[in-house]
Amino acid sequence: MFDEARDSLEKAARRMKKYVDHDRRPLEFQVGDRVLLKLTPQIWKKISSKTRQRGLIPKYDGPFEVIKRVAQVAYMLKLLERLKLHSTFHVSFLKPYHEDLDAERVQTKRAPPLVMKQFDREIEKILDHRTMGHNRKNRQTDFLVQWKGILETEASWERDVTLWQFKKEVQAYWHSKSTRAST
Question: What is the DSSP string of 87-126?
C-alpha cells in the first residue's frame, strides 16, 4: 500500500511537471548578447529617483550586455554605474533584447501634444467656483468662466492653474465674493 501511494505521488508530480514545463523553455545567452533586466520592486527601490508613481514603473530596463556566464542559470551583466546593483542575475530576471531594425517605426507619427501658452479668448466674468479635495495637498479649484462673445449658458469650468493669465480677473472674483459675504 505504501509503494502504491508513493507511485501515485510520483506519477502526479511528473504530470504536474509536464504541464508546467509545457510553456517554459530553457534560456541561454552568449557573451555579447543584449538582454533586458526585469525590474522587481526591490531593484526599483535601489535605482529609482522617487519621482515616478508605482504604476509608471517599466517592467524591464536595458538593454544590457552579457559579460559572462557565471553558472548554468546565472549571468553577469555590464550595468550602468548609476545602477548600484550586483551585476549577476538569475536567468528568470532576463529577457532577450530584439533590436527594432525598421527605422520608420522608431519615429512617431503622432503630432506633438499641444501646450496651451495663452488663451485666445477673454474672460467676460467668473460666475462661480468649486473646490474639490479634502486636504490642502489634493485640493483644486475650478472656476465657471463666461467668455466674451459666448452666452452665459455656455460657460465652461476651468482649472485654476489654467487661468494663470487671468490673475486680475480671479482676484476680482475673490474680492467680490468676500465683499458679498461681509455685507
Answer: SEEEGGGEEE------HHHHS--SPPPP---S-SS-EEEE
Instruction: Indicate the Cα dihedral angle 72, 32, 27, 58, nearest 10°.
Output: 120
Non-local CB neighbours of 57 within 8 Å, separated by 6+ positions? 39, 44, 48
Count of helix runs (H) and strand runs (E) in the chain: 4, 8
Q: Are 76 and 87 in contact (CB under 8 A)?
A: yes
Whether residues 88 and 138 fall in one domain? no
**CATH code of the domain containing 54:** 2.30.30
Grade residue 77 by pLDDT with cuts at 50, 70 and 90: very high
Per residue in 93-125, pLDDT (tens digit) is 899 998 877 766 666 555 555 555 556 778 888
Tell me which residue range forms the domain holding 141.
Answer: 123-182
DSSP reduced 3-state for 172: helix
Residue pointed to by grid coordinates 496651451: 116
CB atoms within 10 A of CB 46: 11
